[in-house]
Specification:
The longest helix has about 35 residues. Helix 6 runs antiparallel to helix 7 and helix 6 runs antiparallel to helix 9. Helix content is about 50%, strand content about 15%. The protein has three domains: about 110 residues, Butyryl-Coa Dehydrogenase, subunit A, domain 1, CATH 1.10.540.10; about 110 residues, Beta Barrel (Butyryl-CoA Dehydrogenase, subunit A, domain 2); about 140 residues, Butyryl-CoA Dehydrogenase, subunit A, domain 3 (Up-down Bundle). The strands form three sheets. A four-stranded mixed β-sheet has the order 1-4-5-8. The protein has a four-stranded antiparallel β-sheet with strand order 2-3-7-6, with helices on one face. The relative contact order is 0.11. By secondary structure, it is α+β, with helices and mostly antiparallel strands. The protein is globular and about 80 Å long. The protein has ten helices and ten strands. Strand 9 and strand 10 form a beta hairpin. The chain binds flavin-adenine dinucleotide. The site of flavin-adenine dinucleotide (FAD) has 21 residues, from strand 1, strand 3 and helix 10.
Length: about 375
Amino acid sequence: MPLDFEFTDEQNMFRETIREFGQNEIEPLIEEYEKKEDFPKELFPKLGEMGFLGIVFPEEYGGVGLDKVTDCVFAEEMGRISAGIAMCINAHVGLACFPVYKFGSEEQKQKYLVPGIAGEKIGALGLTEPGAGSDARSISTQAVKKDGKYILNGTKTWITNGTMCDFAIVAAYTDRSRKGVGISLFIVEKGFPGFKVSGKVHKLGHKAADTSELVFENCEVPEENLLVGEGGFQHAMATLLGARITHAAKSVGLAQAAFEYALEYSKEREAFGKPISKFQAISFKLADMAVKVETARLMVYKAAWLYSNDRKCLKEASMAKLYAAEVVQWVATEAVQVLGGYGYGVEYPVERYYRDAKLASLTEGTSEIQRIVISRELGI
Ligand SMILES: Cc1cc2nc3c(=O)[nH]c(=O)nc-3n(C[C@H](O)[C@H](O)[C@H](O)COP(=O)(O)OP(=O)(O)OC[C@H]3O[C@@H](n4cnc5c(N)ncnc54)[C@H](O)[C@@H]3O)c2cc1C
């Protein structure tokens, strides 16, 4: 098939629907929840009703049965509205519901995926710990089998949806003697004895996202809540592959928002008797912003297309994630510059875009980790 850069009519209509939903249902909540440093939980059932939480999941589980490209259209539009809100949705769908769909038993799918798609249950992924982030094989959380249950002990930090989640996919060692290999994944419900949310994490940006620390103290997890036995680390990495593409799409959306705001502002704001957009220093900046956002977008949708078509895309996913992270930070910084002093003021959204942009190079694998993956794929 020849190269085709067009979205389908269905995808274009879907983009319009998301944009309208964002303007009506999310935009009015942003200021309040950024200040509260909390996520508007009431959004989840609405997102579920619209089918936004089930884009990539089959209809038999209440999903829409579409592909990663369409999922990225959704993530891009969410990133354009609110990166903080987008992050919680991405974590729920891509990091919690996805592994249940991909690796879970039929019973687990009915119990967690179906209500997850409907927005009735919220999920999280607990991989990172105070002592292990990029080096996730070095986690210390441990699960010991006893009397038909697993007893979990450990602490997970920086967990998106940590406070509001109903269940979390938690990585723990079941055989510490086998580094990396001896990690299993569990579905741990909030109500299980010994599961505690020990505190909210306060952040530079993404303030409307729920980020918390979770503690498991002799937490009792029934045997049937084992999601993946030993070798679970590879399954967590497989989960992160798709999540990185969606993450990059969210960065593109945020970069697009910063670019659009700066462009419109430059046409209105006058200095020395003309709109600042007429100064070449500003118009070239805007041209470079447009080029970079478009390049990042092409990389994201190429990776999403490869992923949707079951092609190998480890390198392309990391490239898209890395490049989109660099672009969003650069574009948001330049957007502040275009607005001058007003770019630094909280009355304008550009200040939020600038703070939100930094996260792109830190989560779902830092930019250094993406470069390690790309280097390996290059055979270095
Ligand atoms: C807002 C937010 C939300 C998050 N949500 C979740 C979540 O839902 N679930 C979850 O499990 N985790 C989550 N995380 C954790 C995130 O995935 C980690 O922060 C990330 O993996 C980096 O780990 P670290 O912070 O411990 O940094 P470290 O691993 O300590 O890294 C510190 C620095 O060293 C660099 N570095 C590390 N190793 C190497 C190397 N081999 N070569 C070169 N440089 C290296 C890193 O790139 C980084 O610059 C979240 C983090 C944030 C900030």
